[in-house]
Amino acid sequence: MESAFSAKNNPGAEERRKMLIAAIEQVARGNSAALKQVYDMTSAKLFGVILRIMHDRELAEDVLQDVYLKVWNRAGRFDANRASPISWLCVIARNAAIDGVRRQQRSDYLSGHAEADVLEEIEDDAVPADELLCNAEDNERMRRCMEALQDDHRKSIRMAFFDGLSHSELAERIGVPLGTMKSWIRRGLASLKGCLGGG
Amino acid sequence: MAVADDVLEPAEGVPDMQAGELALGVLEGTELAEARRRQLSDPDFAREVEWWNAQFGLMGQQVTGVMPPAGVWRAIESRIEGMGNHAPTELGRRAPAGWSIATALAGLGAAAAAIALYVSTPTGVPVPAPVPTPAQPARNVLIAQLSDEASGMKLASVVDPTAERLSLSISGLAAAPGKAPELWVVPEGGAPVSLGQIPEDGQLTRELSGEETRLLVAGALVAVTFEDADGTRHEAPTPPIVLAGPLDQV
Question: What residue stretches are annotated with the Anti-sigma K factor RskA C-terminal domain (chain B) (predicted)?
Answer without folding.
Answer: 108-241
